[in-house]
Amino acid sequence: KVHTGGQIFAELGSRQCFGEMAILDAEPRSASITSMSELTLLKIRREDFAEILAEKPEISQGIIQVLTHRLREANKR
Q: pTM (2 decimals)?
């Protein structure tokens, strides 16, 4: 679950990502993540992420889509 204190913003499922805002702007996290079941994570350092984006610009489009979707969902609340 994605939450701040007692307020739950979303429940993520298989193959969904989180932390995309923090890796892009280096600001403090806007929410916390709590796993509700066992999971496997992939952690990417900011420097490595910047290199990946430079090598594969199409990944940027995917990130833009994720951020846009989450912003639209937040605006509905």
A: 0.71
Q: Which ranges in the chain belong to alpha helices (H)?
A: 20-25, 46-55, 58-76
Instruction: Tell me which DSSP letter residue 10 carries.
Output: E
Phi/psi-derived region of residue 21, left when phi > 0, alpha when psi is between -120 and 50, beta in every other case: alpha
**Residues found in the chain:** 77
**Residue 8: Cβ within 10 Å count:** 12
Question: 37-50 pLDDT, tens per residue?
Answer: 999 999 999 999 99
| Sequence-distant contacts of 35-41: CB under 8 A, at least 24 apart | 36/1, 36/11
| Alpha-carbon torsion (7, 13, 19, 21), positive or negative | negative
List, in sequence order, every residue forming a beta bridge with 33; answer none if it has no partner: 2
